[in-house]
Design a protein that fits this description.
Blueprint (H helix, E strand, L loop, with lengths): L1 H25 L24 E2 L12 E2 H18 L3 E5 L4 H15 L1 H7 L13 E6 L13 H9 L5 E5 L4 H4 L4 E7 L2 H10 L3 H21 L2
Helix pairs in contact: 1-8, 3-4
Length: 227
């Protein structure tokens, strides 16, 4: 893991100040690289302005995404069908702050606060509020369970979603980093360039964002100390 992170940092540094500054812009709220977890929450007032219903199976008001992410999802669904005859379904996309609160409170009442935090984000701490996340299903796994990861469709998604700009956000081996249990059905749009890097390095999104910030600081520091 350390070697992979060092490789990423050296790659980012080689791109120079302009490229890294562009990545910093994408890490602002509304950008594709904005990090959301229990440590980095979103304001209750935030809602994307370009939400659309992706034209895919399951598409509805409950599966809205930002336009760029929705178009990428459509391409991925089409490729899954054309390449492997797999039919994917959109299950849950954008969630407002209020909807997150209702979902989280319901889960707390069912299993208790500690257990709920492993599987349900507190309000403002869910990527779904960004409009860049989608929960997926297939004919044999429509109920957002770990079994999706063992289906042929789930395996295809894990192996190919980066081609369309998505990452599997919550892998089982990353639970200590992400703070959430394994969710093979949850994909997050970050853009093709970044999704490919994250997939190839096989690192959590938290680590990727941290390396971007470290690269920016290194470049700024080098610029300040140069003669």
């Amino acid at each position: 893991m350390v070697a992979r992170l060092l490789s990423l940092l050296l790659t980012l540094l080689s791109l120079g100040q302009t490229a890294v500054d562009g990545y910093m812009d994408a890490m602002n709220l509304g950008g594709n690289l904005f990090l959301v977890n229990r440590d980095f929450a979103i304001s209750s007032a935030y809602a994307p302005k370009d939400l659309v219903i992706p034209q895919v199976k399951g598409g509805s008001v409950d599966t809205r995404m930002r336009r760029e992410a929705a178009e990428a999802l459509e391409k991925m669904f089409q490729a899954a069908m054309e390449e492997s005859a797999f039919q994917l379904y959109a299950v849950s996309g954008y969630r407002s702050y209020g909807k997150q609160r209702a979902i989280h409170n319901r889960k707390v009442s069912q299993v208790g606060k500690k257990a709920a935090l492993r599987v349900s984000a507190p309000p403002g701490c869910s990527e779904h509020q960004l409009g860049l996340a989608m929960d997926l299903g297939c004919k044999d796994a429509m109920h957002l369970t770990e079994s999706f990861g063992q289906t042929l469709e789930g395996i295809w998604v894990a192996q190919n979603c980066h081609r369309f700009g998505f990452i599997i956000r919550y892998k089982a081996e990353w639970e200590d980093v992400t703070g959430y249990a394994y969710e093979p059905w949850h994909i997050r749009y970050v853009g093709v360039e970044h999704a490919k890097r994250i997939h190839d390095l096989d690192i959590p999104f938290e680590y990727y964002v941290a390396q971007l910030r470290q690269a920016q600081l290194a470049l700024i520091s080098g610029k300040e100390t140069s003669p």
